[in-house]
Amino acid sequence: MAQGFFPVARRVFTVMGALYGAAIVLLTIPYFQTHTVFLHAVKIPWFSNYEMPERYGLAPNKTINLRISTTDNESLGAWFVISDPYYHALPTIPSQPADHIPAALKNHPTILFFHGNAGTRAFKARIQHYTAFSSRLSANVLAIDYRGFGDSTGTPTETGLARDARAAWNWLIQNGATANQILIIGHSLGTGVSALLAAELSDEAISPRGVVLLSPFSSISKVLETYSILGVLPLMKPLAMIPWASTLVKHAVVHTFATDTLVPRIKGPVLIAHAENDWDIPYSHSEALFSTFLDPLLPPAPSLPSNLASLTELQWSEFSAQLTTRTDARGKIVTTVELHNFGTMHEFTESGRKVVFLQTLAGGHDYLGVQEGVQDVIGRTFGLFGR
Ligand SMILES: *[C@@H]1O[C@H](CO)[C@@H](O)[C@H](O)[C@H]1NC(C)=O
Ligand SMILES: *[C@@H]1O[C@H](CO)[C@@H](O)[C@H](O)[C@H]1NC(C)=O
């Protein structure tokens, strides 16, 4: 006998609700949260041969596969990509490419690249970044796989990834790079790692050339609030209806990656870039980060009484006057340039350092950084051209 539509629909929704509830509960368990945040078990491309970067599109002996040890004795897999100007100036393909690392580090800037979650350093979109960095930006590239990723040992944690980043930085310095020749670039989860490294270096008065945050997020808890599957199913929206549930999930966040709270510690020049068509992390995260950098330069944000019913006309006019003052101050500090068909660039300079926010029309989440326009903004902002 045919069943009515509504009973079936109700049953389907009950099952879906139960699955959703189970998924949320799992997220609060550290083991599952670690696997969800890092997705390090997804080792795409599967069965990578890290000894053969050529298989993934890089020129013969332009990339050196190496291992970097951390202070807590993890061993990280890494690739060092020699910049094209250096590589092309060699009379032939180098027979011992590793011997060229110190000279390449001495003569060309280097990009220290921190990739996003899931996949390995051999992932296709990442290779495209190394190719573009080493050719269009004439820079060497050091790309690591964090602990638990690729062929690296260990299990990822937030402090562990920060250690891995520092180990990669130290490796560059030990091999002859100077701090101001190193540009830190992070993508997605890697922006959290980049911010941790940049803050640590600033605390020690070490100044890298700058920091680039590609498709960043302001913190993991804010990602949980805004994450939507393919831009249509907001993950945490249903939880908003059960106030204690979203609080529970937020308290259960083990790996916080709260870049927004690190902002005051990051001293050098910063470029934030985000595509409007990023369906994984909305560009509102980048707007929020840019505002956090800008905030100390603006008059304080006005607030309204919590009980709006008691709002007087005087309070309202004070509020709107303060808001106008703040907006005007922002307009005087921030320069905005429209880049035809490509995006919008906002920037300000504060005690000699530039903070730039590039909002692009295209690129999505994974391919933002391989756009020529984004590469060029990186090159101009950090003086990589015309050397
Ligand atoms: C570090 O790791 C190596 C090999 O994995 C091991 O032989 C060594 O004992 C470890 N050292 C420490 C200090 O844990
Ligand atoms: C590339 O480097 C390896 C050593 O890492 C060497 O054995 C090989 O001969 C080199 N290839 C060329 C074409 O020189």
UniProtKB/TrEMBL annotation:
<dbReference type="Pfam" id="PF12697">
    <property type="entry name" value="Abhydrolase_6"/>
</dbReference>
<keyword id="KW-1133">Transmembrane helix</keyword>
<dbReference type="GO" id="GO:0052651">
    <property type="term" value="P:monoacylglycerol catabolic process"/>
</dbReference>
<dbReference type="GO" id="GO:0047372">
    <property type="term" value="F:monoacylglycerol lipase activity"/>
</dbReference>
<feature type="domain" description="AB hydrolase-1">
    <location>
        <begin position="111"/>
        <end position="303"/>
    </location>
</feature>
<dbReference type="GO" id="GO:0004622">
    <property type="term" value="F:phosphatidylcholine lysophospholipase activity"/>
</dbReference>
<keyword id="KW-0812">Transmembrane</keyword>
<protein>
    <submittedName>
        <fullName>Alpha/Beta hydrolase protein</fullName>
    </submittedName>
</protein>
<dbReference type="GO" id="GO:0005789">
    <property type="term" value="C:endoplasmic reticulum membrane"/>
</dbReference>
<dbReference type="InterPro" id="IPR029058">
    <property type="entry name" value="AB_hydrolase_fold"/>
</dbReference>
<keyword id="KW-0378">Hydrolase</keyword>
<keyword id="KW-0472">Membrane</keyword>
<feature type="transmembrane region" description="Helical">
    <location>
        <begin position="12"/>
        <end position="32"/>
    </location>
</feature>
<dbReference type="GO" id="GO:0006660">
    <property type="term" value="P:phosphatidylserine catabolic process"/>
</dbReference>
<dbReference type="InterPro" id="IPR000073">
    <property type="entry name" value="AB_hydrolase_1"/>
</dbReference>
